[in-house]
């Protein structure tokens, strides 16, 4: 969808060589690098990207909430971060931790929330217990934040 809307300079990272190969086969990415987010720094300089997305990886047993400052580090001041997580029962504890971390960064002035939107049919459920009201899907949330600009020296 991003490519169809004119975004052509896409970089991707993943901890899995297989997923990177799959991404490479699409021909959509200008650069792909291996990185285990939360265990090592992103392979990019500070304030490098206009927008950073992390979709499908913020969840129990995947990317830890402690990786959020690293995402902010590589985002330009005024740039956007689009993050997602699942709202299924097995991810509720993680989701609560994530939302506390998101709010904490906002309270410290690192970024400002633009949007937090629930999506009912986010992805197919892998079990009936995870399914939202028997729909066969689980719900999720899309969060969009804007990184706060660095205050000028005159502002104090």
Automatic annotation (TrEMBL):
Domain Methyltransferase type: start-end pairs: 4-82
GO MF annotation: an example: S-adenosylmethionine-dependent methyltransferase activity
Highest taxon in the source lineage: Eukaryota
SUPFAM superfamilies: S-adenosyl-L-methionine-dependent methyltransferases
Identification of the protein by name: MET27 protein
Organism the protein comes from: Pluvianellus socialis
Lineage of source species: Eukaryota, Metazoa, Chordata, Craniata, Vertebrata
Protein encoded by which gene: Mettl27
């Amino acid at each position: 969808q991003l490519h169809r809307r004119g975004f052509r300079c896409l970089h991707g990272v993943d901890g899995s060589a297989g997923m990177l190969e799959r991404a490479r086969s699409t021909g959509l990415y200008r650069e792909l690098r291996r990185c285990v987010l939360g265990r090592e720094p992103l392979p990019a300089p500070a304030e490098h990207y206009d927008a950073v997305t992390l979709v499908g990886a913020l969840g129990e047993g995947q990317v830890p909430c402690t990786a959020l400052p690293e995402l902010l580090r590589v985002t330009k001041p005024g740039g956007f971060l689009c993050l997602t997580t699942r709202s299924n029962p097995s991810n509720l504890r993680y989701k609560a931790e994530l939302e506390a971390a998101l709010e904490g960064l906002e309270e410290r002035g690192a970024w400002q929330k633009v949007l937090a939107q629930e999506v009912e049919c986010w992805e197919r459920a892998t079990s009936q217990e995870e399914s939202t009201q028997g729909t066969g899907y689980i719900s999720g949330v899309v969060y969009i934040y804007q990184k706060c600009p660095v205050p000028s020296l005159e502002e104090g």
